[in-house]
Design goal:
Length: about 325
């Protein structure tokens, strides 16, 4: 296509030139030279593009421009020599031929420049995506690590209390739920988006541990239609929210805590709770929420919403 574009004026004149030729041998000779000219420009275009592609990472554009110009000049010399050898040198030094070589040079040089810019942009995009992936991986690992030694010690204390009270069935159930929590968190680094059903199963195990710890002072009100449980959500989305509720609020007989989980009209998963701030100065820098918000943007290109008014703290997670 490039060769045909470059010799387009000769293609237009071909019929008129052939009409002026009287003998069959001259016609064959003329057509053969026309085909040679076409193939020569195709080969030159391919060579220049190949050179520019190979040199596309050269940052200094004039270097590639000079190299392309040098190859074009050599090609022009070869074309003239071949034309002289076969006595087809009538148009060797015409403005049209020179113009065609200049057009070939410019097309290939600037095509190579555009390709180089595109390749550089793609490499930068790939680097950014790789950094995002690595960042997301580290955030998932950090999120999994929120099941920290404090949580582990608290669960052991609750477990020892069950053992002392000789509650065998409840103790076994507690151990099963604890193993489910750790299994899910350890497998989270292999997952990105999961069905809401998986997160709710995890929450079921996690809530059991918390309800044992806080007795009847902490309860959960979960109202999720079965039809919505196949929707997708980033893995371990609920852990930091429930963890923050326990961390930042007083939970006792005078400050009952009910965590509500439902889906609103906007198809968002809502987790809300009454606010009973602890008297001591707890760390409220919101790293868990920032982490969660970043993961939603990276994995789903959506933003979470936070509402804190009238003594109720709510987080809205898009599905």
């Amino acid at each position: 296509m490039a060769g045909a574009f470059i010799i387009y004026p000769k293609i237009i004149d071909l019929h008129a030139e052939l009409s002026r030729i009287s003998t069959r041998s001259e016609t064959i000779e003329h057509v053969s030279f026309f085909i040679y000219r076409y193939l020569f420009f195709c080969l030159l275009t391919w060579t220049l593009l190949a050179v520019n592609m190979r040199e596309r990472m050269t940052q200094f554009f004039p270097n590639r421009l000079l190299k392309t110009a040098f190859i074009t000049a050599i090609a022009y010399g070869v074309y003239v020599m071949i034309s002289l050898l076969i006595s087809k040198h009538v148009d060797c030094f015409t403005g049209l031929l020179l113009f065609q070589f200049v057009v070939t040079f410019l097309i290939c040089a600037f095509t190579g420049y555009v390709i180089a810019l595109y390749a550089e942009r793609r490499e930068r995009e790939m680097e950014i995506e790789q950094l995002k992936t690595e960042n997301l991986q580290s955030r998932c690992e950090a999120l999994a690590n929120q099941i920290n030694p404090h949580f582990f010690f608290n669960t052991l204390n609750s477990l020892s209390a069950l053992v002392r009270c000789n509650k065998k069935e409840q103790t076994l159930e507690y151990i099963n739920k604890l193993s489910d929590v750790f299994r899910y968190s350890l497998q989270s680094d292999k997952k990105g988006l999961v069905e809401l059903r998986e997160e709710l199963d995890f929450l079921e195990s996690f809530r059991y541990l918390q309800e044992i710890r806080y007795a009847d002072n902490l309860c959960f009100d979960i109202r999720i239609p079965e039809s919505k449980k196949s929707r997708l959500i980033p893995v371990l989305s609920l852990l930091p929210l429930i963890g923050n509720i326990v961390k930042h609020n007083i939970i006792d007989s005078e400050n009952m805590m009910t965590v509500s989980v439902w889906i609103n009209e906007g198809d968002e998963l809502v987790i809300s709770n009454p606010v009973h701030h602890k008297l001591e100065n707890t760390d409220r820098n919101g790293l868990g929420l920032i982490n969660l918000a970043d993961r939603f943007e990276l994995l789903m290109n959506k933003k979470i919403r936070i509402d804190n008014k009238d003594g109720v703290f709510s987080v809205f997670l898009p599905l």
